[in-house]
């Protein structure tokens, strides 16, 4: 019998009690569902927060070295199960198996890196004006933190939220995307096996509209860390505003890659296709606008189209260059945007539909448009599929103006061999992550990650040396005893 217990509350795996049915499909072979189960209801969401609250004092009081040891153990367990975790990830999300292996391996690395926060998230000793007063700061856990994650990096994203929150002494409720509950369940099982006590990590799998508000507005919730679309993030910002608790929202993107005439065009074309089609374009940092100087537009466009046409497409388990979109709905959205771009007058150079002879999975061709204008919807709205729009510009200033001409501000890249241009770009572009001669995608965990404008609440960035700041209060102490 298939396991349908996806809710983990206070150390017990139980069935959801709502009428929402969650069905997991392999996006490459969606006809036969992998599993179907009831989502959590509102009482279960609230019970998960209650359990986290009850476990809070004990977890916060545990010696930092003991919390750190549990997280190291979790990392070892992730690594020991790398192959089967990667298979689970590919079966429910669709990405190529080598990408899944990379993501699982990164999850282990994340747990190791942030495990150290248990001992390293320190305060400061500050010189005092008064010799009889000792002045210093300490960092204390927020308490109960709700972690909400999307489906596109379904083990890495929960891992960096969980690892930092747990290391710094918080208890959590994790709500993963309903597209990818299987990998979330396995991650939570591994944490429990590693010795995370009952109630410290709770898992609620349910529809955002049923459980979401209960997980963010419950009076015991002390913070919310959300990654997902800007629409959902904005909704959560509004719902928690009344309580004024810390909230971190990392949201959508419409990321530009600028190419100047002095650039290495082969490298730029490689980055543009890697950035737009890697992960089937389903990355918040995906390259969606290729902003190219008119002098090199023709040559670059040829190189981009050649690379797009060379990509292999297929089921993730066959390890192609590009797997399917995650769901039928996402793929329909991709195809709708392609029609919108055509209607707006953009010229389709390659792709634009489902690949021939691949009617069953949610497959889509790598798609490149030229003749894109900055005010077109294809240049303004996040598509979240392998669709690249080429925008020609006359000079550097126009390139920056177009790059900034969107509501989003997550990542941006420039290809140039001129240091003056690259320096000016890093200063002028409105993006939280800026690359010079690199793809808009990809990040290193020791570097902070997060956006600007509609891409982020910009409170505290995730990852990096100071990710723990979001998960901790800084208390300022004056002691004259
Ligand atoms: P989504 O906004 O639809 O869902 C994200 C999560 O929010 C899911 O777990 C969902 O169930 C939950 N949710 C939905 N309604 C809710 C509510 N009312 N209250 C609480 N939670 C609710 O996003 P998605 O489709 O899963 O992911 C794709 C989006 O995520 C894209 O826009 C992408 O750019 C963005 N993303 C951003 C980053 C980043 O770091 N900036 C990283 C990855 C993905």
Notes on the protein architecture:
The relative contact order is 0.14. Helix 15 links the parallel strand 18 (411-415) and strand 19. The protein has helices at 42-61, 64-80, 82-93, 97-115, 117-120, 156-167, 181-193, 208-217, 230-241, 265-277, 297-310, 328-344, 377-380, 396-403, 419-428; strands at 7-9, 12-14, 21-24, 35-38, 125-126, 134-141, 144-148, 171-175, 201-203, 223-227, 247-250, 255-259, 287-293, 347-350, 367-370, 387-393, 408-409, 411-415, 433-436, 452-453, 472-479. 38% of the residues lie in helices and 20% in strands. The longest helix is centred in the first third of the chain and has 20 residues, at 42-61. With 481 residues, the protein is α/β, with parallel strands linked by helices. Helix 1 (42-61) runs parallel beside helix 8 and helix 4 (97-115) packs parallel to helix 6. It has a seven-stranded mixed beta sheet, with helices on both faces. A five-stranded parallel beta sheet has the order 9-8-7-10-11, sandwiched between helices. The chain has a three-stranded antiparallel beta sheet with strand order 5-6-21, with no helix packed on it. It starts with 6 loop residues before the first strand and ends with a strand. It is globular and about 70 Å long. The site of nicotinamide-adenine-dinucleotide (NAD) has 30 residues, from helix 8 and helix 9.
């Amino acid at each position: 019998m298939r396991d349908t217990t996806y809710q983990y509350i206070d150390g017990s795996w139980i069935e959801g009690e709502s009428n929402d049915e969650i069905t997991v499909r392999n996006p490459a072979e969606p006809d036969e569902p992998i599993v179907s189960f009831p989502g959590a209801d509102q009482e279960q969401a609230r019970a998960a927060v209650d359990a986290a609250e009850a476990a809070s004092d004990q977890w916060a009081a545990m010696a930092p070295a003991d919390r750190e040891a549990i997280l190291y153990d979790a990392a070892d367990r992730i690594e020991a199960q790398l192959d089967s975790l990667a298979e689970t990830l590919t079966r429910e999300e669709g990405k190529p198996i080598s990408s899944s292996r990379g993501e699982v391996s990164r999850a282990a690395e994340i747990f190791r890196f942030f495990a150290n926060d248990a001992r390293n998230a320190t305060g400061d000793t500050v010189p005092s004006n008064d010799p009889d007063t000792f002045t210093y700061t300490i960092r204390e856990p927020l308490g109960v933190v709700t972690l909400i994650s999307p489906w596109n990096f379904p083990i890495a994203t929960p891992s960096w939220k969980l690892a930092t929150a747990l290391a710094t002494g918080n208890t959590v409720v994790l709500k993963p995307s309903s597209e990818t509950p299987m990998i979330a369940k396995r991650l939570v099982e591994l944490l429990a096996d590693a010795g995370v006590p009952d109630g410290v990590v709770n898992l609620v799998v349910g529809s955002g509209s049923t459980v979401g508000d209960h997980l963010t507005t419950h009076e015991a919730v002390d913070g919310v860390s959300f990654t997902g679309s800007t629409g959902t993030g904005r909704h959560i910002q509004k719902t928690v505003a009344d309580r004024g608790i810390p909230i971190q929202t990392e949201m959508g993107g419409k990321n530009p890659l600028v190419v100047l005439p002095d650039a290495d065009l082969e490298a730029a074309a490689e980055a543009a296709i890697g950035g737009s089609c890697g992960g089937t374009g389903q990355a918040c940092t995906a390259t969606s606008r290729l902003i190219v100087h008119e002098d090199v537009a023709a040559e670059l466009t040829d190189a981009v189209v050649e690379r797009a046409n060379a990509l292999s497409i297929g089921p993730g388990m066959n390890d192609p260059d590009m797997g399917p979109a995650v769901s039928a709905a996402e793929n329909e959205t991709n195809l709708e945007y392609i029609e919108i771009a055509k209607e707006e007058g953009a010229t389709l150079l390659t792709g634009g539909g489902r690949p021939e002879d691949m009617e069953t999975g949610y497959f889509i061709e790598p798609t490149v448009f030229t003749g894109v204008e900055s005010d077109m919807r294809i240049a303004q709205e996040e598509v979240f599929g392998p669709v690249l729009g080429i925008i020609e510009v006359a000079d550097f200033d126009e390139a920056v103006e177009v790059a900034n001409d969107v509501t989003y501000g997550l990542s941006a890249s420039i290809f140039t061999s001129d240091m003056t241009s690259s320096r000016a770009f890093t200063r002028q572009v409105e993006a939280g992550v800026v690359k010079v001669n690199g793809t808009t995608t990809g990040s290193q965990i020791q570097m902070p990650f997060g956006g600007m404008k509609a891409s982020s609440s910009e409170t505290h960035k995730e990852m990096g040396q100071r990710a723990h700041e979001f998960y901790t209060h800084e208390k300022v102490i004056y002691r004259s005893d």
